[in-house]
Structure formats: structure tokens, C-alpha cells
Specification:
globular, two-stranded parallel ribbon
Length: about 80
């Protein structure tokens, strides 16, 4: 199967915008990534990471502890919103 080349310029732009904005949602969808960029694991404010429509071969940089923390934060925010 033919694979598209990761769009590194757009990946870098979105990560830099996230870093500057200090938001909690990072959209890395539709970028043909084969892995999650290493710097993502260092974003303390990250609550939601969209990696849909990529070519990810693994999620090795997203450890289970980080996923649990993100899930807990999301559940608390949803609880407060209701």
C-alpha cells in the first residue's frame, strides 16, 4: 500500500501554535504522521490530542500514566460542565 509522506512543516506549525497559545487541545489530524512527535509528551496543559487520519505505527511516546491523567482531567471537566 502506498503511504503519504508526513507533513513535517504543518506538524511543526501546529505544535508551535499550541505551545504559544497554551491551549489544551492539539489537532495533529490528517498529517500522515507515522509517530507522535516527541515534544507532545512534555505539554502539561494537553487534555485532548487528535491524531485521526494518520499512519501511526505505535503510540510509544504516550505512556499509560499520561493517558490516565488526560482521561481523568477530561472526566472532571465534563462533570463540572453538567
Amino acid at each position: 500500500m502506498w503511504k503519504r509522506v508526513p507533513n513535517t512543516k504543518e506538524i511543526t506549525r501546529r505544535i508551535e501554535n499550541f505551545r504559544i497559545s497554551g491551549g489544551d487541545t492539539l489537532d495533529l489530524s490528517n498529517l500522515y504522521m507515522i509517530e507522535i512527535p516527541a515534544e507532545v509528551k512534555d505539554f502539561k496543559s494537553l487534555v485532548s490530542l487528535d491524531v485521526n487520519y494518520n499512519q501511526l505505527e505505535s503510540l510509544h511516546l504516550v505512556d499509560s500514566e499520561a493517558l490516565t491523567l488526560i482521561k481523568t482531567i477530561r472526566e472532571r471537566v465534563e462533570m463540572w460542565a453538567t
